[in-house]
Amino acid sequence: MTEDTSSKKIDTFQKRKNKEEMKNQLITFALMIVFTLVAFGIVVGELMPKMFVIPTILLLAIVQVAFQLYYFMHMKNAGHEMPSTMMYGGFFAAALSITALSVLIWW
């Protein structure tokens, strides 16, 4: 195999990889727009009981944050294991603290 053939295969592989990455980012972007429109629709259109509006919006926000981290901040790529671990640990500690304080306040 010559150097030129190997280089073309690498270029082809990289182009295919970039195309797949762009497709995933566009799909994720479209989903985030849809989630945002759903959240606005829930609030403006009063489509569900008020008791379920805030938890639903928070759930949509959590999904959007996950999409942002995973696709747009490239946390899924190799070499991001330690930052991912620290961020997820921080999210867990924050959720645990908020839950504990909520239980103490409203119990």
From TrEMBL:
Main location: membrane
GO biological process per UniProt: aerobic electron transport chain; electron transport coupled proton transport
A Gene Ontology term for the protein's cellular component: plasma membrane
Regions crossing the membrane: 26-45, 51-73, 85-106
Single GO MF descriptor: cytochrome bo3 ubiquinol oxidase activity
InterPro entries in UniProt: Cyt_c_oxidase_su4_bacillaceae (IPR014257), Cyt_c_oxidase_su4_prok (IPR005171), Cytochrome_c_oxidase_bac_sub4 (IPR050968)
Family classification: Belongs to the cytochrome c oxidase bacterial subunit 4 family.
Descriptive protein name: Cytochrome c oxidase subunit IVB
Organism: Virgibacillus necropolis
